[in-house]
Design goal:
The chain has 201 residues and is mainly β. Helix content is 11%, strand content 35%. The longest helix has 14 residues. The radius of gyration is 25 Å and the shape is globular.
Amino acid sequence: MGGNNKIDNDQSILQQVGNNVASNFEGIFSIKPIAKYLSGARCILRVNGKIVGFAFSVSWKISTEATEIVTIDDYLPYELAPSRISVSGSIGAFRIPGSGPGKLLMQSDTLSFLHQRYIEIEVRDEQSDTLIFLTKKAMITDRSESIRAESLAEMTLNFKAIGYVDERTPQYPSDVDKSPLSTTGVGPIKRAADKVKDLFK
């Protein structure tokens, strides 16, 4: 065969192929030591400070609910009033005999139900040591398990939480008066801050 058909010796063609591959993946992968996109493989999940090695997924939902304030003779809301912050999520994990949620004190049992303590859930990026999600007042609200003959046993733990922290530490808006908003000396902002103050330590 002619030399024109040998691409292994043609540096220009190899360079062009390399450039095409690099351009196709430029939006997904970074050539820097630490990739700019988060992935599950580089995340660490901790419950009560301990790494949960048998978990394969975690998800959460943060709702900042607002109530419509309506007035007479106006078909548009007068304003949207912040009403409640709710946090919920789920953890997917493999079922290991002898290491269930009850054994690890993650979920209450029949006798400890009325005395269940809060658990701490943390998700952190291992490469950059960036905090992705943290709550120190969570409870497992329900658990579902699935066992099939042709696959590993799995379970899903759903949780609810009070307060959360992510990459940004919660702060008061700079243009908001932080003085107590009630005659008793304790306003809603102060009460909320007191509930989650251990998150900021």
